[in-house]
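anyone seen this seq b4? input:
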Amino acid sequence: MRRTTSLDRLLGEQLQPGHTFYVPGVSGESTSLLAALSARAEQAREVRFTGVHFPGINRYDFLKLHPQARQRAYFMQPSLRAGLQNGRVDLLPCDYPGIVEDLARLPVDVAFTMITPPDADGRCSIGASYDFLPTVWRNAARRVGLINPSLPRTRGSFEVAVQDCDLLCEIDDAVLEFDNGEPTPAMQAHARSVAGLVRDGDTLELGVGKLQAAILEALRGHRRLQVHSGMVSSPLLGLIDAGAIDGAQAVQCGVALGDSGLYERIGRDERFYFRPVSETHDIRRIAQIPNFCAINAAIEVDLFGQVNADSVKGRLVAGVGGLPAFVSGARLSKGGRSIITVPATTDDGSISRIVPALSHAAAAAVTRHDADTVVTEYGVAELRGVSIHERARRLIAIASPAFRASLETAWSQIAGGL
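predicted toks r here
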């Protein structure tokens, strides 16, 4: 029978050696839960924490709770490096569909989720972050609902019945906010090139960040756009208000991550409809969406069209996330295409992001046979259906002018050894 308790008492009972705790990330993160864990740090010995926590967004360090705490992770973060070396961290190289499969098999002793207060029928929304929670919720041994009146009540394909919660805790957390930042002039030029590839009536997928914000701004003149994406952010509201997106459930997503204005809007605007990762990143579902346009960022692209999205000089900085699923789904969509955005150089201009070949230490998120369209602030390289030599030529043409000669020399040497 469910009962209401305090977080401190709950953790006092449930934090036990050998237990696995699922703690949500992105905008599903609860500051009350994290504070309560810190207060019970001595009980975290041999407790394994898991969840999908994003670098630069979710910064809580579970390993600091106790020298014998463990973590099962899917994205690299600075707090994980030491634990990865000493065996306290299991880092899985999974894309989003792979994470769903892993979490579906993983024995979870306690799963947490923030929920809205129940309605008259005892139904609760999980707010701005559907993400992986539905996958874990079905199989968790104990399910804990954190009743948060600040959580927006959203429409979606999953909800929690209050009677299905084994334990309830009342909290009052502000939903985690995220600022995309102001795009630079180079990013705005980059964004205009990307927007020029988008057609009226397309269904878009794109993430969060300065460049993504600039792309949304550049798309305001488009019409009849739809969104099917893992994550949406505050700049999307400008696109909606400009009339580019309209209609009930025109924006289908797994997570909203932004400011209080975004969270207020998703609670009342019928354009927003939320789905878990098992639906948003289902390649078969994406393939059925005509004119699906996947727009994703990269760290570097080589002259074969291979994409590195999560490592810098062999050092992991993130994970591949939803990129492979959206690229594959876009290629199967009728009229669909995948657009990879990459700055031509590092911020200081000293290193080219268009490289001769990915190094042996780089992790390829998109292989050469999936390469489609690459965009820098210097232009667009259409790669689908062209030879390897033409592909290299087109990529060199959108590199920074300072590096084009060296790239041409490098390609000549590579091509001579093929």
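The first helix runs from residue 7 to 14. The chain has two domains: 3-170, 185-416. kinda curious what u guys think
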